[in-house]
Records
---
Amino acid sequence: MIEAVGLTKRYGDKTAVYNLSFQVRPGSVTGFLGPNGSGKSTTMRMILGLDNPSAGQVTIGGYSYRKLPNAPRQVGALLDAKAVHGGRHARNHLLCLAQLSGIPARRVDEVLGVVGLQDVAKKRSKGFSLGMGQRLGIAAALLGDPQVLLFDEPVNGLDPEGILWVRNLMKSLAAEGRTVFVSSHLMSEMAVTADHLIVIGRGQLLADMSVRDFISHNSADFARVRTPGTDPAQREKLTAALTEAGGQVLPEQDGALRVTGLPLPRISDLAHDADVRLWELSPHQASLEEAYMRMTQGAVDYRSTTDQRAGLQQQLPPGAVPPQMPVPGQGQPGWYAPPPPQQGGQPFAMPQGQPPAGPYGAPGVPGAGEPNPYAQPAQPAPAQSAPAQPAPVQPSAAPAQPSAAPDLTKPEDAR
Ligand SMILES: Nc1ncnc2c1ncn2[C@@H]1O[C@H](COP(=O)(O)OP(=O)(O)OP(=O)(O)O)[C@@H](O)[C@H]1O
């Protein structure tokens, strides 16, 4: 298990990660999401001992990476697929890594086969495509058959077949009881790969929950209703009936109606009572992408001036407060999708029955008492994980070699 407590990293004036606490458990794929520059890579580097935290700590199986017995054999990581000596053959690159950790050469050929690079094993990696480089990086991460795996954007540059392969690989590694922590900007992929999500924005924890909870608590389910397009009067009649019954009705661009606040059977009954024919009555469940956009939109630092949402953010309803910083654990009420109708007007309410505060909010937690550099009013920590005692690391049956093993000969923070 990976456990971060009050993890904070500053680079001069820049706070890349602030007071981050979470656990990544074995046996499931945990997705690590956040906008560009939100601190994902920095967090991963701290997990791997490549950067020192400014405050707080992060452990793997109860040990910091640098104190982990046989660390290179316990943890495999893909951080930067380009961090390879381009003049070396793929096989030689892996052989060097294997020899440094006492891994037998036959394992090199095994992982080359696993990632599908066996036919180019004798080719120099500088001639590799982006996707081939990713595969080589994944091979390096798998080299020692580690129990803990970190992947930073593993599907970057992979073709559809490669993406599917990575998805299945992550799931099978988790199914074997390993800890799999993977960052990605591909929401559609994360939706089908990850079981659990840790979402950060501007270095702070925004959510720590299952994919299913994340979607249901950060999005609005609604019904799409369509009346015959030839008769606008029917549409108006239905809108009036639904509104009178307490529903909220918004027109969709294609002429359909988006209805919240009423269950589908009630909409059907109301349409029947109003003598309105329906050509469509369908439930709409938000995607992970939609839920993610809603939660993180206030924490996006880099946005195109032609992005429609940049414009949308200007059009606030009268009296509305514009989004500034995401509220940890509550996300950001934005304008990308309609607010969920339930949960007492709290658009990002936490799942029922969960404690409002995370296990790390207690005084004395490293980093927790420090001033928040984002000057956001204090909010309860969102982490939902129950606190757990760090367990001692069990030496894995086979050794592992992270492709991003810390080079302790380099000064700290060298990039
Ligand atoms: N060595 C460094 N020195 C100074 N600033 C840094 C350093 N490393 C990261 N940062 C800054 O810290 C912030 C977080 O960067 P990081 O690379 O961790 O984000 P990220 O979430 O991985 O982004 P992306 O999704 O674009 O890969 C950024 O503002 C970045 O510029």
---
Amino acid sequence: MIKISHIRKSFDGLEAVENVSLTVNSGSIYGLLGSNGAGKTTLLKLLSGLYVPDEGLISIDSQPVYENPEVKEKIFFIQDTPHFLPHYTTKQMAQFYESIYPRWSEERYQELVAIFQVDIHKKIHRFSKGIQRQVAFILALSTLPEVLILDEPLDGLDPVMRKKVKGLLIDDVAEREMTVLISSHNLREVEDLCDFVGIMHKGQMMIEKDLDDLKSDTHKVQIAFKSGAPVPPGIFDSVKVLHKEKRGSILLLIVKGKEEEVTASIEKYQPVIFDILPLTLEEIFIYEMGDVGYAVENILG
Ligand SMILES: Nc1ncnc2c1ncn2[C@@H]1O[C@H](COP(=O)(O)OP(=O)(O)OP(=O)(O)O)[C@@H](O)[C@H]1O
């Protein structure tokens, strides 16, 4: 289990991460989302022990991470630009990781090389960006990490490879209870991968929630009444309306609440049109960011 408590990190007076706390349960996938410059990469570097926090505690299975080799053996961090030793081939990098990660699995490495079909004798820096990322996944998963930290992991991978990588991650989470923390801007990609999401903005954690709860809690609603009929007063008394907008005779809303309750409270007024649709993670993200003054686009589409 990853536990981050009241962590702070500043650079030259700029608070990159400000009093952030989060917990990631073993065997789950946590999606760290947020605006540009929100502090996501800084948080991942703090978690992987690359940065020392100014304040707060970070632990994995109750052991502090910073300068703790025992814990670091359980973690693998694939940065937004994966790092390899200069002029090394995949085979040489594999030998290097085998010497520093005690849980390194040669069998898993051979399996992954066969899956991705990379030339292990070619110098990694000569590969394209996407293939370098595939190499990073081969090496990372061969260390059998307990905690895998990923910064924009699917960036540069083609759709077939993205699907393959997602499948491998899900398998390791299911089979060995691997814990994954992913930072991404690609909300559609994390939507079907993560159990939990946290949204950061300006160094702070704005919301942290179970993805299913987050999605089942917020809906897009379209309603219309018989031609010219006004919207009945009181219709929204038992519904929390987050956003309301009229388009011709159709009223578009974003509401919070359980789907059955929202449906019941609107249907009793017998609208001629009534649709209730789930919001995508992308729509929830844009709405939440708008709530804190970040540029909002019209998400009602
Ligand atoms: N090594 C550093 N030295 C100085 N400032 C830094 C350093 N690393 C990050 N920052 C600053 O900290 C803030 C958070 O940066 P960070 O890279 O963590 O954001 P992010 O959420 O990953 O952003 P993006 O989504 O744009 O990649 C930014 O204002 C950035 O300029």
